[in-house]
Each structure stands twice: as structure tokens, then as C-alpha cells.
TrEMBL record:
<feature type="transmembrane region" description="Helical">
    <location>
        <begin position="12"/>
        <end position="30"/>
    </location>
</feature>
<keyword id="KW-1133">Transmembrane helix</keyword>
<feature type="transmembrane region" description="Helical">
    <location>
        <begin position="100"/>
        <end position="119"/>
    </location>
</feature>
<dbReference type="Pfam" id="PF04657">
    <property type="entry name" value="DMT_YdcZ"/>
</dbReference>
<dbReference type="GO" id="GO:0005886">
    <property type="term" value="C:plasma membrane"/>
</dbReference>
<keyword id="KW-0812">Transmembrane</keyword>
<dbReference type="InterPro" id="IPR006750">
    <property type="entry name" value="YdcZ"/>
</dbReference>
<feature type="transmembrane region" description="Helical">
    <location>
        <begin position="42"/>
        <end position="63"/>
    </location>
</feature>
<feature type="transmembrane region" description="Helical">
    <location>
        <begin position="75"/>
        <end position="94"/>
    </location>
</feature>
<keyword id="KW-0472">Membrane</keyword>
<protein>
    <submittedName>
        <fullName>DMT family transporter</fullName>
    </submittedName>
</protein>
<feature type="transmembrane region" description="Helical">
    <location>
        <begin position="139"/>
        <end position="158"/>
    </location>
</feature>
Amino acid sequence: MDSPAVPRPRALPFLFAFASGGILTLMAHFNGTLGHYGGPFFASWTAHATGTVAAILLIALLFRRGEGRALKGRAPLWAYLGGLSGGLTVIFTAEAVNSPLALSGTLALGLAGQVAFSLAADRWGLFGLARRRLSAKDAASLGLIAAGSALIILFGRVSL
């Protein structure tokens, strides 16, 4: 019996995901630098003020082009938690980057936290997602990420 054909992955989404990882690393570095000179709250306020100005300019541009009228409807209440979690992420990142964890340890633990939370969201159907039973592959992925994080944090400062 033949299994159904699995569509071949396209290169562009992989490129976007890889680029977003690079941008995330730059963001963590910039926020860490801001946190070093002005503190973690200054880093968070600066990052979010910049994002607010960019969002206002983008919305103004959309309305000027006549496309802003499509921005209607109400977001679910939980969608507004993104601002809270984003602010806390910048504060925690700015603090952790300037600790013995440094940039690589901070990013490794951040990745482990993202994967663990996404697996929990899949398992319990959080945020309107379909519930999904976790597989051994999911557990192995999380275990490898945790092991890699531990190697970076515990042995990353060893010089050859």
C-alpha cells in the first residue's frame, strides 16, 4: 500500500525561518547592549517605542493607500498578551545577555523555552490550536535542544 505523497518543502519558508533566527540574534544583541548601558527596562521601552512608531507609520501608509479599511474585526483578548510577553522577553534577554550566560546561552535557553511552550500549546490546544498528541520525536527534539543548551552554557567558555 502506497502512502500518500508528502509535499516537498519549499526553500523560501526555510530561508525566511533562517533569516528570522539571524534577526532574533541581532535583536538580542542590540537589546543586551541597550540593557548594558541603560538597564533592561530602558532596553524594553526603547525597543517597544521603536516598534510602536513603525506600526503607526505602517498603518498610516495602509490607510493612505486605501488598504486600511480591511483592518477591522476584533482580536481575541489573549492576542493582547503578546505585548506583555514581548516586553518581558526584552527585559529578561537584556539581563541574561549581560550575565555569564552571554548571547549564545541566552539564545539557547530561549529556543528551549519556545519549543517547550509550543509543545505544551499543541498538547493542550492553547490559543485555539488543534490538540495534538506529542510523539517521541517531539520529546527527542526537546531533549537534544536542552542537551545542546547545557553544553553551550556549561562548556561554552572553555578556550582551546
